[in-house]
Amino acid sequence: MASTLNPYLNFRDRTREAMTFYQQVFGGELSLNTYADFGMSDDPVERDKIMHAQLTTPMGFVLMGADVPNAMPLPEGGSVSISLSGRDTDELTAYWEALSASGTVREPLTAAPWGDSFGECTDRFGIMWLVNIAGPDA
């Protein structure tokens, strides 16, 4: 099996909501496992938090996430972004619209100086997304 590189997102008590949203955007199979499922917490406050979530989409994307326990600091997420790129204008535009609809658009999805269409947004969970649609000469 080849090595893979997957984004792993950390949230404070919002993993189930965020990963369900991403499943609505991208489709696919979502698995959610709590700390209780793995016997990792007897604390009633922590038991139902998501210890590991994995979304595998029909396009082969894999996105993972977890709820950070209350006793641990939540990692800063501002230095992380997820890039979606390709040639399928309809597909990538649909992802853009779903991700940006309830978030903040930093750069609208428009023609870029390098000949592609590009947009940048932060979704409602604080995750930054970059969408690049290859131009006709790419």
Automatic annotation (TrEMBL):
Domain Glyoxalase/fosfomycin resistance/dioxygenase: 9-129
One Pfam family of this chain: Glyoxalase
Database matches in CDD domains: PhnB_like
InterPro entries per record: Glyas_Bleomycin-R_OHBP_Dase, Glyas_Fos-R_dOase_dom, PhnB-like
Name of the protein in question: VOC family protein
